[in-house]
Design a protein that fits this description.
The protein has 505 residues and is α+β, with helices and mostly antiparallel strands. It has three domains: 156 residues, D-Maltodextrin-Binding Protein, domain 2, CATH 3.40.190; 102 residues, Dipeptide-binding Protein, domain 1, CATH 3.90.76; 210 residues, Dipeptide-binding Protein, domain 3, CATH 3.10.105. It has 14 helices and 19 strands. The strands form four sheets. Strands 1, 8, 9, 10, 11, 12, 13, 14, 15, 16 and 17 form an eleven-stranded mixed β-sheet that branches. Strands 4-5-7-6 form a four-stranded antiparallel β-sheet, with helices on one face. It starts with 13 loop residues before the first helix and ends with a strand. Belongs to the bacterial solute-binding protein 5 family. Keywords: Signal, Transport. Pfam families: SBP_bac_5 (PF00496).
Length: 505
C-alpha cells in the first residue's frame, strides 16, 4: 500500500513562530554550552490551552506535560510502583480511611510553607472543578487536617485507588486557588515556575530557587506549540529547538541518521481510540458501533501509517497498564459490517460526523482519511471535523458530537484511571451507560486485593471492547527526539515527557 497523504494541521502561526514554524527568537536563551543559565527549547506538538490542572484541563496531556515541572504530587509512580513524593508515608487504618504524613521541609516557590491545608484545598478544587478527574474522588466524604502535616481522606465506600489517584493531584497554595489570575503564571513546590503563558502558543518556565529537592540544571524550559511536523523536523535539524516528540514514524528514520540527534522510542500507557456517542442515534445500537469497527482495514492502515509507532491493540487499555487484558480481535470484514448495519435498520448506511483536535494524534488527519474511505465502502458517509483543541475539548465534555478521534494515556498506570473515569454511566463522557459495567467498575475501585482488582478490570474491558463503545486500533509507542547535547532525559510510559532533570552539555 502506498503511504496515505499526510494532511498536516492548520494553525500555521507563521507570524508568531517563524518560517520553520518555531523560531525562538534572538532574545530567547539558546541551548548548549552546558551552562546553568541555559534554557531548554521544546517544540510541543499539541497546544497548551490552560494551566489550570483542577478543572476542565485536569486530564489534558499538554497541560500535564508542562505542569509536572511546576506542581508536585503526594505520590509518584516509579518503575511501576507507587512511592512517596510530598508525602512521607501513608496508612490505611480502616477500609474507609487513608492517612498521609506530609513532608515538613517543603515550600512553595514564593517561600511559604506547604501544609495539609494546601493539600486539602487542592483536592477540593479538583473535586469542585468537576473536570475529567473529579470522578476519581466521588467516594470521598471528608478530607481532614488533624495537624499541619497530616491529611486524612475518608470515603463512603472503600477506595483502593487513593494512592494512584494522588499521583495526579497537583498541590498548589490554598490562598491562590480561587484567583483565576493565578493560573496565568502558576507556581507550586516543583523545580520550575511559570514566568509567562500565551494560550495555544507558548509557556515559559524558569527555575524555582526555593525548590527543596535537587536543583534544576537548567535556568528554564521554553515550550512552543509547533503544529507542522515539517516545522519541527527542520527546526531540530537547524538547531532551532532542542527537543520534540510525537513525530510520525515516516520521519524518524531520517532523524536517526542525523549525527546531531538522538531518537528515543519506548512503550507507553497511551493508545489511539475512536469513541462513538452512544447516547445519539445511530450509535445507541451496539451493532452500528461494531459495524464501524469491522468496516475498517486497520491492519493495512497500521502498516502504512504507524510502522514503529505502536502495536495493534488487544484491548481498550495498553498492555503495560495494570488491569489490562487481551480480548477477542475484530477482523476486517466489510460483509459483516453491512450485515450488522442491516440488522440495526440501516441497510443503506447513514451519514454522520467525526471530530478531532488539530495536532491531536500521530498521522491523525491521514488516519481519519483512511477510516472515512473504508466507511464509505459500506455506505457510511462521515464528514470530518478538525477543530482547534479548546473547541474540541468544550464539545467533547458537552457530548456535542457523533464520534471523536483522539489519543489518551492511563497516566496513573492503573486501569481505574481510564475505565472507571471514562466508562462509568455517571461520568457521561461518551454517552454509554451499562449497569453491569458500573457494578464491576465500582467493585474494582473498592477492592483492596490487587489480584481481584485485575480480574474485575479484565471483565470490564471485555464489555467495553465487545460493546464497541469505541474502536481501539493501536497501543502507542512514544518517541522523543533530542539534540545530542541534551542529557539526562529518562523516558516514562505515562506519555508525559519530563524535562525537569535534563541538562545541556
Amino acid at each position: 500500500m502506498r503511504s496515505l497523504p499526510l494532511r498536516l494541521g492548520a494553525l500555521v502561526m507563521a507570524g508568531a513562530l517563524g518560517l520553520t514554524g518555531c523560531s525562538f527568537g534572538a532574545d530567547d536563551p539558546a541551548g548548549g554550552g552546558g551552562s546553568a543559565d541555559a534554557t531548554l527549547r521544546v517544540a510541543n506538538p499539541t497546544p497548551v490551552v490552560s494551566l489550570n490542572p483542577f478543572a476542565a484541563n485536569s486530564a489534558d496531556q499538554p497541560t500535564l506535560t508542562v505542569l509536572q515541572g511546576v506542581f508536585e504530587t503526594l505520590v509518584v509512580r516509579t518503575d511501576g510502583k507507587l512511592t512517596p513524593k510530598l508525602a512521607e508515608s501513608w496508612t490505611n487504618p480502616d477500609p474507609l480511611t487513608w492517612q498521609f504524613a506530609l513532608r515538613k521541609d517543603v515550600t512553595f516557590a514564593d517561600g511559604t510553607p506547604m501544609t495539609s491545608a494546601d493539600v486539602k484545598a487542592s483536592l477540593q478544587a479538583l473535586i469542585d472543578g468537576k473536570g475529567p478527574l473529579a470522578g476519581l474522588w466521588a467516594a470521598v466524604t471528608e478530607v481532614g487536617t488533624p495537624d499541619g502535616h497530616t491529611l486524612t481522606i475518608r470515603t463512603g465506600t472503600p477506595l483502593g485507588t487513593v494512592p494512584s489517584n494522588l499521583a495526579l493531584l497537583s498541590i498548589a497554595p490554598a490562598a491562590k486557588l480561587t484567583d483565576p489570575a493565578f493560573f496565568n503564571a502558576p507556581y507550586g513546590t516543583g523545580p520550575f515556575k511559570v514566568s509567562s503563558f500565551t494560550a495555544g502558543q507558548r509557556v515559559e518556565l524558569v527555575r524555582n530557587d526555593n525548590h527543596k529537592g535537587d536543583k534544576p540544571k537548567l535556568a528554564g524550559i521554553s515550550y512552543r506549540y509547533v503544529p507542522e511536523v515539517s516545522g519541527r523536523v527542520t527546526a531540530l535539524a537547524n538547531n532551532e529547538i532542542d527537543v520534540s516528540w510525537g513525530l510520525p514514524p515516516d520521519q524518524l528514520a531520517g532523524l536517526r541518521e542525523n549525527k546531531d540527534l538522538t531518537v528515543s522510542s519506548f512503550p507507553t500507557y497511551a493508545n489511539y481510540y475512536i469513541w462513538f456517542n452512544s447516547s445519539r442515534k445511530p450509535f445507541t445500537d451496539a451493532r452500528v458501533r461494531q459495524a464501524m469497527w469491522y468496516a475498517v482495514d486497520f491492519g493495512k492502515i497500521n502498516s502504512s501509517l504507524f510502522n514503529q509507532a505502536g502495536t495493534p491493540a488487544k484491548g481498550p487499555l495498553p498492555e503495560p497498564v495494570f488491569g489490562s487484558a487481551a480480548q477477542n480481535p475484530y477482523g476486517y470484514d466489510p460483509a459483516k459490517a453491512k450485515q450488522l448495519l442491516a440488522e440495526a435498520g440501516y441497510p443503506n448506511g447513514f451519514s454522520t460526523t467525526m471530530m478531532w483536535s488539530t495536532g491531536c494524534c500521530t498521522n491523525g488527519n491521514s488516519f481519519a482519511d483512511a477510516m472515512i474511505s473504508d466507511w464509505a465502502k459500506v455506505g457510511i458517509v462521515v464528514k470530518p471535523q478538525e477543530l482547534e483543541r479548546a473547541t474540541w475539548l468544550d464539545r467533547l465534555l458537552k457530548l456535542d458530537w457523533d464520534s471523536t478521534m483522539t489519543t489518551g494515556s492511563t497516566v496513573t498506570g492503573d486501569a481505574d484511571f481510564s475505565l472507571a473515569r471514562l466508562y462509568l454511566s455517571t461520568a457521561k463522557r461518551n454517552g454509554y451507560a451499562n449497569p453491569e459495567l458500573d457494578r464491576i467498575l465500582l467493585a474494582a475501585r473498592q477492592e483492596i486485593d490487587q489480584d481481584k482488582r485485575a480480574d474485575l478490570y479484565a471483565q470490564a474491558g471485555k464489555i467495553v471492547w465487545d460493546e464497541a463503545v469505541g474502536i481501539f486500533p493501536l497501543d502507542l509507542s512514544g518517541n522523543v527526539v533530542l539534540r545530542k547535547n541534551v542529557q539526562g532525559f529518562t523516558p516514562t510510559p505515562n506519555d508525559l515527557p519530563d524535562f525537569a532533570d535534563v541538562s545541556l552539555g
